[in-house]
Every structure is written in C-alpha cells, then in structure tokens.
Amino acid sequence: xxxxxxxxxxxxxxxxxxxxxxxxxxxxxxxxxxxxxxxxxxxxxxxxxxxxxxxxxxxxxxxxxxxxxxxxxxxxxxxxxxxxxxxxxxxxxxxxxxxxxxxxxxxxxxxxxxxxxxxxxxxxxxxxxxxxxxxxxxxxxxxxxxxxxxxxxxxxxxxxxxxxxxxxxxxxxxxxxxxxxxxxxxxxxxxxxxxxxxxxxxxxxxxxxxxxxxxx
Amino acid sequence: xxxxxxxxxxxxxxxxxxxxxxxxxxxxxxxxxxxxxxxxxxxxxxxxxxxxxxxxxxxxxxxxxxxxxxxxxxxxxxxxxxxxxxxxxxxxxxxxxxxxxxxxxxxxxxxxxxxxxxxxxxxxxxxxxxxxxxxxxxxxxxxxxxxxxxxxxxxxxxxxxxxxxxxxxxxxxxxxxxxxxxxxxxxxxxxx
Lengths: 216, 192
Hints:
The structure holds two protein chains of two kinds.
Chain A: H1 8-16, H2 21-33, H3 35-53, H4 64-71, H5 93-99, E1 108-111, E2 114-118, E3 128-133, E4 138-144, E5 148-154, E6 156-158, E7 163-165, E8 169-172, E9 180-184, E10 190-196, E11 200-202, H6 205-213
Antiparallel strand pairs in A: 1-2, 2-3, 3-10, 4-9, 4-11, 5-8, 5-10, 6-7, 6-9
Helix pairs in contact in A: 1-3, 2-3
Chain B: H1 19-27, H2 31-50, H3 55-72, H4 83-99, H5 125-140, H6 144-154, H7 160-167, H8 171-189
C-alpha cells in the first residue's frame, strides 16, 4: 500500500476539476492503488456537492425535459473497450488506456539502463512519460528547474526522502536545496510515470546526462 | 405539498420523495421520478455549468449531464455519496469531457489491479446524509474569503493559479485559504 501520497492541494484540485489531463491521469492512477486517498477525495467531492446545492439556479430553455425524455431510450455511444490487465501488478486502467499493458510498451533506450515511453498528452513544455530504470542503477545528483511529479508503478527506489514503491507519489521542486539523487532497488526494473513542468538542471557533468536521458 | 390534515383518516400521506429515493426510482426506469429530478436539479446543473461555459454550451452540457444521470442511476450508492455530490461529480466530469478529446481519468473499481480498502465499516446511507447536512451548515458559517476560493475552485473549475490571478491575491494565500477552509469543514463534519 502506498506510503507517499500526492500533496493535499493536488487532491483538492483533482476533485474540483482543476487539473490538466496528465495530472488527472497521475492522480486517478494513484487512487486506484490507494484507498486512503480515495476516502480523502470522497470527502473533498462532498464539498462540491454542498456548493452545488447553494448555486443560483438558471432554468434550462423550454422543451429541455421533453427533448431528454425522447433520448432516454437511445443506447449510449459505444465506448472503446479498455486494454485488459495482464495481472494484479499491471498498470492501473486510467493510465493503461494510454499505454496498454506494461509488458507491451515499446520503450526506447535513452542511455544504457534507462528507457522511456512518451505519452500522447505530452507537450514540449510538459513532458509526460513512463521511464523504466535498470535495477541497481544510481541516478546522479540533479536539481529540478520546475516541479516534477512521479508515480511508481513497478520496482522501487530510495532517495533523500525515503523508499518509494508501487503506488507511491514523489514530488520534487526547484525550491529544494540538496541535489536530488536516486538509487534504484535491486530485483526488477523501476517504472515511473513522470509528469514534469519543465527541464531538469544538472549539478554535475555526469548529471548533464540526466537531462539528456529524461529527454529534455 | 399536501398537509397531513387534508387527508382522510387511514389514507396514506403522500410525502414528496427525497433526492435519494428519486435516484433509486430512476434506477428502476421511473420517468415520473426522472421528471421530478429534472425540476429539482436541472437549474442548478445549468447554474454550475454557466459559471465556466457559454450560455449555449451550458444548456447543451446540462442535457448531457441529465442523460448520464438516467444511465448511471443504477450505480448510485447512497452510502458513498449524497445525491448532490453524485450529481456534482457527473457535472464536473461532463464539463471537463466537453473541453478534452478523452474522458476525464478516474479510478475504476472493476480494474483487476484495484487495491481495495482494508475491511472497515462502510458509511451507512444515514450517516452519509447526516454528514452532508453538517457540511451544509458548516459551509454557511465559513468566513467569506475562504468560501470564495472554494467556489472558484469547485464551481468555476479554476486552478489555484487562476484563482490567484482572478482574485488578485498571492498563490500562497489561495492555498492557505483552501487548506484552512477544508480543515474547518472537516472539523465540523466529523460526528462528535
């Protein structure tokens, strides 16, 4: 079960409907794996319900109800069937809709030990990707020029904050003083969904590779 | 509303259905219940959508929301959400869906990778209803500056940075008002 959760501001914005597509996917994927944050979001959503009850009403145009009653028997528009999970540790559905099952993702190798798959909602100023890192790898120290959110989907890593495993969310920002360094767990590839607000700033020559290997 | 005195003795008193009972009836494909639900909720759904969409678009998405109410009513669970919360979630999602090519991401309990909650007593519908009433009271007593940021977030769908721009207050202040408001509401909603 997840021990590192999204910041409260993010859960509030998720329930209010104020996140962009990539952040919605990250939060919904975490929620699939985290009953505690689901309970939190249910409470926050109740706030939306209470505010809705107090909103100034605006009557819909005449004939709206009649038009609806005629549409009730129409079948709903067909939905594409979601990609099936290949096991209990596959990628959760909110993300799997974009990536398919983990075993079939066509990662590209960026440097030895690190592979990357860019998601379709990725933009130049906002890269969204799955990054797969080899067991035992150390990511050299780097700073963050903008905030970055990661959600661990497989394997794990340790950094200054603690140990992160499947379901955990890590948030890094430009206000951190210590350069950030990660050691990937032994055993299996560590796969992380990364949503960035901007490029990373390397603090060492080796760290410059980090910029390159994360694709920006 | 018919008063009890107007009824002949022995005749059942016609009580208007509460929102929860209406949704259960709609789940059973009761069109009269649906028409009543429309009268109660359509103006508020439109009021909500008109905060962030054009007038015509708000009308169009209101119809979409009400169609989803008919289709999704069988999955309404009164122990999980008050009717107004359930409607809010549908309206919020429909608003976002109208602005994107893909549906808003949401966790799906049918997903084989779903991590269930540890065995804990679920809220009953009665507890949920009582909590919802306490929340309404607490919301009415919230300081104006805190209530306003919540309305911008939940009703207009603005991001915290947008709220900061709209209200001309620093982002940190927006965040702390949201946090204070939620702490205060949470404190009032928990059963004592």
